[in-house]
């Protein structure tokens, strides 16, 4: 009886070990192949990568379902064997047989634990693949991202133009402020020193020289401002010319479009006229091909 128990437990352990090893090898090969494909195809086409990942995920899910089914059946069968052996042991065996049976039971439990660990490992691999799939954006998401980036670019360009305009206004006002401060300082200086300078010849000479220097500086500043104004005026004229050319081109396009529409309508009328003339000509040809008596009757009927 103990020998039979030993043989049955040995067969159970061998069968369970073979199933676990086979499932482990299959799952490991699938995961390895999937990771190689992900590493190899990641820099290239996004769509083919998603398709290959989905196919591999389906294969892994099917393998997981098969593995869980086999594990459940193996667990049920092993539990039945254990219950049967337990009943046989309780029915009466010696101590040596009981020790061997306990040893086999422990081995079977160890195999079950290892199978559960392997299943947990495979589940973690599947979860990792699912996360990678979730990280890949779909075509709709890519289109939405592109539209959003285009809107952001438009807003940034608009804000940039406004900022440049504000900076130009600030620089112009700052320059006006500096000129007004210089003018105020000059007037104050002249007001304070005019009486002392006009009293002597040297003072008058220095005052005249100082005023001439101020006048030269003002002339240079004026020339610089005039050059800037001329460049801005040229730019403005160029923009106006481009605008006028665009308006003229738009008007020409509108006139050409109107002419094209008129020609299309005329073409449709001519086609309808040609079709009508063709139908009348075919009717005349049919009448000419008919016998003389029938043609005369037909002409009399028309008359």
Provide structural commentary:
The protein is mainly alpha-helical. The chain has three domains: 2-138, no CATH class; 150-199; 216-303. It is built from six helices and no strands. It has helices at residues 2-41, 46-92, 95-135, 139-198, 201-289, 292-302. Helix 4 (139-198) packs antiparallel against helix 5 (201-289). The protein starts with a helix and ends with a helix.
Query: How would you characterize the largest beta sheet?
Result: none
Oligomerization:
single chain
Q: How many individual helices?
A: 6
What's the total number of strands?
Answer: 0
Span between termini: 122 Å
Q: Quote the average pLDDT.
A: 76
What coarse outline follows from CA principal-axis ratios?
flat
Helix content: over 70%
**Main structural class:** mainly alpha
> Unreliable segments (pLDDT under 50, ≥5 consecutive)?
1-6, 298-303
Which H/E pattern describes the elements? HHHHHH
Q: How much strand? A: under 5%
Domain module count: 3
What gyration radius follows from the Cα positions, in whole Å?
A: 50 Å
């Amino acid at each position: 009886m103990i020998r039979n128990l030993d043989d049955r437990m040995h067969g159970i352990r061998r069968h369970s070990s073979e199933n676990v090893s086979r499932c482990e090898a299959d799952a490991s090969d699938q995961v390895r192949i999937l990771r190689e494909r992900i590493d190899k195809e990641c820099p290239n086409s996004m769509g083919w990568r998603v398709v290959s990942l989905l196919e591999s995920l389906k294969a892994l899910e099917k393998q997981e379902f098969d593995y869980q089914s086999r594990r459940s059946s193996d667990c049920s069968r092993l539990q039945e064997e254990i219950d049967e052996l337990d009943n046989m042991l309780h029915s009466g065996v010696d101590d040596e047989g009981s020790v061997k049976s306990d040893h086999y039971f422990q081995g079977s439990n160890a195999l079950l634990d290892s199978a559960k660990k392997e299943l947990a490992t495979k589940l973690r691999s599947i979860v990792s693949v699912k996360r990678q799939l979730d990280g890949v954006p779909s075509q709709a998401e890519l289109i939405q991202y592109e539209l959003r980036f285009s809107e952001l670019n438009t807003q940034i360009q608009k804000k940039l133009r406004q900022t440049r305009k504000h900076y130009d206004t600030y620089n112009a006002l700052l320059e006006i402020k500096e000129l007004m401060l210089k003018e105020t300082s000059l007037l104050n200086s002249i007001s304070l020193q005019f009486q002392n300078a006009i009293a002597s010849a040297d003072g008058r000479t220095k005052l005249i020289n100082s005023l001439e220097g101020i006048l030269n500086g003002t002339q240079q500043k004026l020339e610089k401002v005039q050059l800037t104004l001329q460049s801005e005026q040229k730019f403005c004229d160029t923009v106006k010319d481009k605008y006028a050319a665009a308006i003229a081109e738009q008007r020409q396009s509108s006139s050409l479009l109107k002419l094209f529409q008129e020609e299309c309508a005329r073409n449709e009328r001519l086609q309808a006229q040609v079709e009508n003339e063709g139908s009348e000509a075919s009717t005349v040809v049919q009448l000419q091909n008919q016998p003389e008596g029938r043609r005369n009757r037909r002409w009399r009927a028309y008359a």
